[in-house]
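Table S2 (text version). Query chain:
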Amino acid sequence: MKKAYIPLGIFAVLLVFLAIGLTRDPHEIPSPLIGKPAPAFTAPVLGKPGETLSNKDMLGQVWLLNTWASWCVACRQEHPLLVEFVKTNPLPIIGLDYKDKEADGMQWLARFGDPYTRAIVDADGRIGIDFGVYGVPESFLIDKQGIIRYKQIGPFTEEALREKLVPLIKELQI
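Corresponding structure-token output:
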């Protein structure tokens, strides 16, 4: 008779774990890369045949890697904020055009504005995989030594830019 309660007990434990998981904010998933060197990459620059950019080119400066794609609906929400952000914040932003066609990425930037210091192509998604990208948009703030200091999952909001990103940029640029 007591053996009949074992499946019920297991079910109850699983139900508790599910309930706890549903109360968590998926935008607050901690990245195992925070505090570690950014993954090495060399990628073609969007719209500049033969030109490449690597993470080593960014050493010595604080910069933001922003993953985006022309097919990304949430990127349309974030993009105008980034266009305005670069007007008042002198921070290099590298756009990682993730799993996109180069022509579509170039058309997107021509239509909606280009907040990027450089946009690079990640057609097969390998760079995004190395950074642990769950989906676009995602952004990584990287310090002067090439260490990832912050990860934004999903689109930036004005509040996240103002309250999280800007203070951290100021701290890292000292």
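Notes on Table S2: The first helix runs from residue 5 to 22. The radius of gyration is 20 Å.
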